[in-house]
Specification:
This protein is α/β, with parallel strands linked by helices. The protein folds into two domains: 163 residues, 3-Layer(aba) Sandwich (Rossmann fold), CATH 3.40.50.300; 104 residues, K homology (KH) domain (GMP Synthetase, Chain A, domain 3), CATH 3.30.300. Helices cover 38% and strands 22% of the residues. The chain contains nine helices and nine strands. A six-stranded mixed β-sheet has the order 2-3-1-4-5-6, sandwiched between helices. Helix 4 links the parallel strand 5 and strand 6. The protein is globular, with a radius of gyration of 20 Å. The N and C termini lie far apart (45 Å). 36% of the residues are buried.
Length: 293
């Protein structure tokens, strides 16, 4: 008799800024998805692989479910919704500010996909245990969650019991990926995301949402050579990203280079350019050109 081994795909879904990417990074014990305090940081589906002796869980981090107002946002919503259909199980992530009305917009997509769902109340370290239990009951009312729990992606509290629950609910199956693999994302894509994270962190107002990053040169030498273009939609935005005497662009480059060096494990020569690509976030062709396919 052989030991039971389970495997499958788990969609991490929820509204923007509830800590989905922070949760994935905590589970994998590494920084895979970029995180900022701003909503809609995640724009694409990010695959992260959790390996255990008795299971392989392939997590799919997704953009926050929201009402789209332009082509980029429609792309993000489509990625999130299609991921639910591709998964064996949905993790519906909420935070203490969630309301039943807001959660309903997420659960409508889960119901349409016909997937089992686990309710995960994230950021539980910000509230007491009784408050968390009350919030779980409030959010769970009227929905058929197969399990609900409170976790803190910041401290790690509640993560291990949740992983046990996920493994128990996945079907028996093979390892879909090698044990030493944590993502199918390319280094080029991960470096691009790290640059975009620094733009999100260091700029404000509409700038983060008007920016796309494109890697034009990527040479894995030592030092590695990376040339990237930061696309903006207006000349005024270009001026802000560059900053007075180039200070903002230098700071973006410095912070991104340090993160990329940690990722690649070698020195990095990073060259950044800023280019105006007018209304790229509203243009389907420009979106495809920039990798949003």
């Amino acid at each position: 008799m052989t030991d039971r081994f389970t495997s499958g795909f788990v969609a991490i879904i929820g509204r923007p800024n509830v800590g989905k990417s922070t949760f994935l990074n905590r589970v994998l014990e590494t920084k895979l998805s970029i995180t900022t305090s701003k909503p809609q940081t995640t724009r694409d589906r990010i695959l992260g692989i959790y390996n255990a002796p008795d299971a392989q869980v392939i997590f799919l981090d997704t953009p926050g479910i929201h009402s789209p107002d332009k082509e980029l946002n429609r792309y993000m919503l489509e990625k999130a919704v299609s991921t639910i259909h591709d998964a064996d199980l949905a993790l519906v992530v909420a935070d203490p500010l969630e309301t039943p009305e807001k959660l309903r917009s997420v659960m409508d997509h889960v119901s349409q996909a016909g997937r089992e769902a686990i309710l995960v109340l994230n950021k539980a370290d910000l509230i007491g245990r009784e408050t968390a239990l009350h919030k779980l009951r409030e959010l769970g009312a009227g929905h058929r969650f197969v399990h609900s729990c409170a976790v803190s992606s910041t401290t790690g509290d509640g993560i291990d019991p949740l992983l046990d629950e996920i493994k128990a609910r996945l079907p028996e199956g093979p390892r879909y990926f090698p044990e030493d693999m944590i993502t199918d994302a390319s280094l080029r894509f991960l470096c691009q995301e790290l640059i975009r994270e620094k733009v999100f962190t260091l700029t404000s107002k509409e700038i983060p949402y008007a920016v796309a990053v494109e890697i034009e040169e990527f040479r894995e030498t030592d030092p590695a050579h990376i040339g990237a273009v930061i696309h903006v939609e207006r000349p005024s935005q270009k001026a802000i990203v560059i900053g007075a005497r180039g200070r903002m662009l230098r700071e973006i480059g410095t912070q991104a280079r340090h993160e990329i060096e940690r990722l690649l494990g070698c020195r990095v020569f990073l060259e950044l350019f800023v280019r105006v690509s007018r209304d790229w976030s509203k243009n389907p062709k420009r979106l495809r050109d920039l990798g949003y396919r």
